[in-house]
Specification:
alpha/beta; 5-stranded parallel β-sheet; single chain; 49% helix; 3-stranded antiparallel β-sheet; Rossmann fold; 226 residues
Length: 226
């Protein structure tokens, strides 16, 4: 495993870890691992190949063979390619997120992606965003953060994000989907969503994004002396 510093930011869907992770990585000049995107890509590739999401063996094969690339536009907007096709929008839908949660429940898929995720740790350091970054993927990380927020607030946040993108969404349905995803993520047999014993717990309910980013940067700079 890399000796470069690693900051893990874990938490449930809607806790703000994606936004915070991107901002922290940018502020520190670190690489970024969006592990959730990998599971979304596995699910999308499986759907496109007509593979059922309960077929763990075939899903693991998809995970091992993923032809993916991450990039950015000149304005620093995320771009994700799967087998040479721009799938940035397709992997950010609610359906893709739910599919990813189902795919991630398979130990075979998690095992297939483990080393790929660890290879993201490059100089000068890495911010790893996910659900088992601090417990399984980077257990020796120097800085571990676990973000959380009330289920109601997470649903409201997601509803707002979708509205801003022009996507019609039902708040009650989003709340139900988040509850179902939380249950899958926290009760799966392999790498369940749980805070590492040495993680700093941050409840983001009622906090601004800027306040959370500032707190994470304060913790990171203090522990890494940067």
């Amino acid at each position: 495993m890399s000796s470069d510093p690693v900051i893990t930011i874990d938490g449930p869907s809607g806790s703000g870890k994606g936004t915070v992770s991107r901002a922290v990585a940018r502020a520190l000049g670190f690489a970024l691992l969006d592990s959730g995107a990998l599971y979304r890509l596995v699910a999308l590739a499986a759907r496109d190949a007509a593979i059922e999401l309960h077929d763990a063996v075939r899903l693991a094969d998809v995970a091992e063979r993923l032809d993916i690339r991450f990039g950015a536009t000149p304005s620093d907007e995320e771009v994700v390619w799967l087998e040479g096709r721009d799938v940035t929008q397709r992997i950010r839908t609610e359906a893709a997120g739910n599919d990813a949660s189902k795919v991630a429940a398979h130990p075979e898929v998690r095992s297939a992606l483990l080393e790929r995720q660890r290879r993201f740790a490059v100089p000068p350091g890495l911010v790893a965003d996910g659900r088992d970054m601090g417990t399984v993927v980077f257990p020796a990380a120097e800085v571990k953060i676990f973000l959380t927020a009330s289920a109601d607030e997470r649903a409201v946040r997601r509803h707002k994000q979708l509205k801003e993108k022009g996507v019609t969404a039902n708040l009650a349905a989003l709340s139900l989907e988040i509850a179902e995803r939380d249950l899958r993520d926290t009760t799966r047999a392999t790498s369940p969503l749980v805070a590492s014993a040495d993680a700093v717990l941050l409840d983001t309910t009622g906090l601004s994004v800027a306040a959370v980013i500032d707190r994470v940067l304060e913790i990171a700079r203090g522990r890494l002396s940067i």
